[in-house]
Amino acid sequence: MNKPLAGIRVLDLSRILAGPWCTQHLADMGADVIKVEHPERGDDTRGWGPPYLDGTQDAAYYLSANRGKRSIAVDIAQMEGQALIRELVSSCDVVLENFKVGGLKRYGLDYESLKEVKPDLIYCSITGFGQNGPYSKRAGYDFLLQGMGGLMDITGRPDGEPGAEPMKVGVAVVDLFTGMYAATSILSALLGRNQTGEGAWIDIALMDVQVSMLANQAMNYLTSGQSPKRMGNSHPNIVPYQAFATADGHIILAVGNDGQFQRFCEVAGVPLLASDERFATNRSRVQNRKLLVPQLERLLAEKPSAYWLEALEREGVPCGPINTIEQVFEDPQVQFRGMKMQLSHAEAGSVDLVSNPIRFNDQSLNADAPPPGLGEHTQAVLSELFPDRGDYLEKLKKQGVIR
């Protein structure tokens, strides 16, 4: 498949999750992503286990975000390493980094310095709080930003219920959203460069991303002046749209309009409930949530999950189970769509990975190469880009500048 980013080269100076998530997406789209790592430590997430891939020292966490890249091990704290990176930049289209504000300036690897090397460079900086402002010097981690950016205050059981407290989401959603915002920004900058010939410096902050992804909840506040509260599995603007206990477990009922509510009531054997003026429209159901939900809880608790899922699905009422992750990968729809993929791996033999969800012309876009070992491609990449510098590269290797 002729991938859309074939011919684009990205120098990836990032680590952990937001930056690598971005560059993995670019690699899946066909970009040549060169991942720069410290010769000894590598990306921090290589050690964020267990679990680790059998036969390797690489944690599952690292494997989740580094498919399709080529790893070179360069010590940028040494002057020779800095000089090598600057030379590499001249043959790259994009540089992505997630160092603290000003952290790369002392190495001469900041945007202004590298723009002198390549004037049309697209340079993306990911930080916790952005390049300016009172918090700009702070380090930012997903968990902190979920709290500071309001997400945890609207996630978890409501005040007054057992176990009520602010709760983080089960995956690092701020990092993941930031990675995708970075990817779309880089793609936009590449398109802009094709039109104007000019590069760009992209400033993306986890805090900004978290605030932006509050979406309708942010607008609920801005419109009403009232901060939304934690509602557990309930929805602030739609009823019934939550998890319900059944006779043998739980299901999700996601009624998005009045017609669906009418069909639900027919399946549940209470058709008159849908014509009750207190519940006939979503607006009235939201207003009378405390009257309606207990009635629905009693109804749904009378029969097992399988009964409800089959009967409601048959009538076109949106519903579903609450799966474990094991059950997710056993789901026939997930299997049909190929969301679990396998690549060959030099040390482990093979590695199971999660597919990129995007399809182009009915084909998955996934890089062909597994997450690389630390410094696995140092020699190959540098020899390819500097074919007449063999003695120089061997000298750098002996000095510990590269691995």
TrEMBL record:
Gene3D superfamilies: Crotonobetainyl-coa:carnitine coa-transferase, domain 1, formyl-coa transferase, domain 3
Taxonomic path: Bacteria, Pseudomonadati, Pseudomonadota, Gammaproteobacteria, Pseudomonadales
UniProt KW keywords: Transferase
Single GO term (MF): CoA-transferase activity
A Pfam family hit: CoA_transf_3
Official protein name in the record: Crotonobetainyl-CoA:carnitine CoA-transferase CaiB-like acyl-CoA transferase
Keyword Calcium listed: no
